[in-house]
Amino acid sequence: MSAPHRDPWPGVVPGTENEHAACADLWTRALAHRDGTAPDPADRDRVLRKLGTPPHLLLVARPVEGGDPAGFSLSFPPAAGDPSRTAHLAFLALDPGRRGRGWGRRLLAATLDRLSGTSDAVTLEVLPDNAAARALYGSTGWRVVGEGRFEGSGRSSVVYRLDLGRG
């Protein structure tokens, strides 16, 4: 009996401006897959606007060096002088064909590792009915701290927070 197929873990590296379009395309595909809809150009435009907002931390996961991202995270470290030292994870996405293999958990861990030097806590928002994302965040120590609305779409959100401790 052969061993089950396992994807190799990609490198998680800082993303570049040249990868903004690929990340926006990936986000749009992931949302369409999650929602069972056609890709929405407005979703892509929202991601591109956020990617163009400095300062941010963009990490990409690649299965092969030089290949297109198979996943990415976009977070915003705390503003200079912010006494709360709270970062915000704005996007975490994987190519839909790579879900369920631990890649999201690893990309999340790499993101938190990078933020831990500048942040004491991280927040994020998720759709109330996004069971997969909520399971990931709940299993990795995030706690629900409130409700909100997504800036771009106005849809309801659940706000999570993870305390990192002093970086």
UniProtKB/TrEMBL annotation:
Signal sequence segment: none
PANTHER family: AMINOALKYLPHOSPHONATE N-ACETYLTRANSFERASE-RELATED-RELATED
N-acetyltransferase domain sequence ranges: 10-165
Protein name as annotated: GNAT family N-acetyltransferase
InterPro entries: Acyl_CoA_acyltransferase, Bact_Acetyltransf, GNAT_dom
SUPFAM superfamilies, per database record: Acyl-CoA N-acyltransferases (Nat)
Single GO MF annotation: acyltransferase activity
Alphabetized UniProt keyword annotations: Acyltransferase, Transferase
Transferase listed as a keyword: yes
EC number of this enzyme: 2.3.1.-
Keyword Transmembrane helix carried by entry: no
Enzyme class (EC, first level): transferase
